[in-house]
Design a protein that fits this description.
Length: about 450
């Protein structure tokens, strides 16, 4: 090797020291070249990582579902280097399917397949609304047992349409007409146009909770549920949930609150608010590489609308929440009262639902005045008296048949936020609530 003789030469003794001064210009140029080189390497590295991340996520994306309310709409064009917040507001609907088809593992058993297969039901449906100015966010959870009008929907196979119904259980929309039908149903219910949507399966929830390193949730009392898969047996206090255990926690109905679906919604809001705190406070939103890892965990287990098939769009939607503030992220349950025709079903609380719909359509931030729901409690809440009608709704109708819902006074506006009727339950991401077990 050519450098071997030089090493032996150098070992004979130190070279003479030259006492001189390097010209300042030469020193400045050398330093500038060094800095430029470092910057160039860093830039190339970051772009390469981002490019690889986009490619790696993109190859996992499933074919997109076209939403009927967006004729001729195609995938939003996004370049790989353009990792910035999406412009304007966002309406995105997420439907959680109970289908066990194709999931493998514990879901291959006959009991699991008999429980739900094929398209499945949308047993969990959430609408994400991000304001045009990105200063507020709402996540609205729709009860699965809500009786609503389901409109005529395009057939999932592209041939013809699926007949609608004047009154049907909300969670049948997915099995009737796929994602597009769930989106149309929520659009008719709220008055919004929803350009983004996705169906997520059980494995997706497990993967996403694992991608963020688990989510720490507070339990006011132990949570046990033998009906989930795997079964739950969680002690009171702080519990970090990930993977299948996180999924069981989100699916649990018998183990939380009063054992109802409405209790399950408030339990999910405890988890989601904790997840939001981890993503915002944990720096995930400021790290595009971590965001792409989270996006990959999502896209491997979702069926997206054709507007979400570019993974950069998912990242840009997440970045829209970077500066929103946890106190402006509101999780709420779509207001409902007992169905006078069936005590096991609920119908929209027309007055309170109208207030929620108006805030969504008019892109207004909201303030909650009611409780945190049936399965959640806020240990830091003050003893300030609350209105008598702000308690959590019950399974029995609160009004006589034919009445439109609650008699809560008209909402007022405080500091730009619309105060919702106290019958609307939920919490902000800033509230560190605890789940109440069904003991």
């Amino acid at each position: 090797m050519t450098d071997l003789p030089r090493r032996h030469q150098g070992a004979r003794g130190p070279a003479p020291v030259r006492h001189g001064r390097l010209p300042r210009r030469r020193l400045f140029v050398s330093a500038s070249k060094l800095l430029a080189g470092v910057a160039a390497v860093a830039l190339v590295s970051s772009v390469s990582v981002a490019a690889y991340a986009v490619w790696d996520v993109a190859r996992s994306v499933k074919p997109g579902v076209h939403l009927a309310s967006l004729p001729g709409h195609t995938t939003l064009p996004q370049g790989i280097p353009n990792v910035s917040a999406i412009a304007g507001g966002v309406n995105l609907l997420l439907a959680g399917t109970d289908s066990r088809s194709g999931l493998g593992g514990v879901y291959n058993s006959a009991d699991e397949q008999n429980a739900s297969s094929g398209e499945g039901n949308n047993d969990v449906t959430m609408l994400l609304h991000i304001a045009q100015d990105h200063k507020s966010m709402m996540v609205v959870s729709f009860p699965r047992d809500l009786m609503v009008r389901i409109p005529s929907c395009p057939a999932p196979d592209g041939g013809g349409s699926v007949s609608g119904s004047s009154s049907a259980q909300f969670n049948t929309a997915l099995s009737r007409g796929g994602l597009a039908c769930v989106v149309l149903t929520v659009e008719k219910l709220t008055g919004l146009t929803i350009p983004f949507g996705a169906v997520i399966n059980f494995n997706g929830v497990s993967a996403m909770s694992t991608a963020v390193g688990g989510v720490s949730v507070c339990l006011a009392s132990p949570v046990t549920d033998a009906y989930t898969n795997p079964p739950l047996d969680l002690p009171a206090g702080e519990n970090t949930l990930a993977g299948d255990e996180a999924l069981s926690f989100l699916r649990s109905r018998h183990g939380v609150g009063d054992g109802s679906d409405l209790g399950r919604i408030s339990n999910q809001q405890v988890f989601l608010s904790a997840l939001a705190r981890k993503i915002v406070s944990g720096g995930v939103l400021s790290n595009p590489v971590q965001l792409y890892a989270l996006a990959k965990a999502a896209v491997q287990n979702i069926t997206p609308s054709d507007t979400l098939t570019n993974p950069t769009t998912l990242v840009q939607i997440a970045l829209a929440l970077k500066d929103t503030g946890l106190q402006h992220m509101v999780f709420l349950q779509y207001p409902a009262v007992s169905d006078p025709d069936d005590p096991n079903r609920v119908i929209p609380d027309e007055y309170a639902a109208s207030a929620v719909n108006d805030a969504l359509v008019n892109d207004q931030p909201v303030a909650l005045t009611g409780s945190t729901g049936r399965a959640a409690e806020d240990p830091s809440a003050t003893a300030t008296p609350i209105p008598t009608d702000s308690s959590a709704p019950t399974d029995t109708a609160t009004t006589a048949p034919g009445d439109t819902g609650s008699t809560t006074p008209a909402p007022t506006t405080t500091s730009g936020a619309v105060e919702l009727p106290s019958s609307v339950t939920g919490q902000t991401a800033a509230q560190q609530t605890c789940t109440k077990g069904n003991n």
